[in-house]
# Entry
Amino acid sequence: MFPLRDTVRSRTFPVVNVTIIVINILVFLYEFALGPHIEVFIREYGLTPVRFFWGFQHNIPDAILPLFTSMFLHGGWIHVLGNMWFLYIFGDNVEDRVGHGGYIVFYLLCGIGAALSQTFLFRQSQIPMVGASGAIAGVLGAYFLLFPHARVLTLIPIFIFLQIMEIPAVVFLLFWFLFQFLQGTFAASTEGGGVAWWAHIGGFIAGMALVFVFKKKEPQSPGAIYLDEPPRYRL
# Structure
């Protein structure tokens, strides 16, 4: 299933969400420009579990820095564009509910929580972990709780046909989470099979937990938009 748009209209311009998207794209363009030197760059700024634990014993900055830098790196065009599309669809509304400043901290903490989930499960892995998907999974977890009445216009493949359907956001996100969990479980013996499934799971759970800390109190005034208000389409 691929989301095309949701039915919740943001009340403020998502300046932080847009900035994060732009930064990720610019960093990927820089990666692309590195050519054959990209592998060295990824190993330096991606998060490698073995190096992470080694860093805590010998050089703490070497362990801490990749927790942040790895969530702004990507392994290919499909990787970065897919992640940024999900962030574009769901991130603006979460930023609207937690505030611009809070959203920055929330996003980074979700990314760190996601990375640590994968790292602690695969301590001996020497494969660098890159991508914003863990942090974005946190955004999805927050969206799941904040917008129970939202719906997502979704592209669904049915055999050889493509069908566009509007489905409840909770159904879409539950299906997404279940898919990550099953893939992570089946691929555990191969360190995720090239995908950090448990980072996605950890990020989603982190987002669900952290959103209660960062969520702004909704104004109780006439005309205010409440969390249980019927959704409206965003133009």
About this structure: Residues 39 and 161 are 39 Å apart (CA to CA).
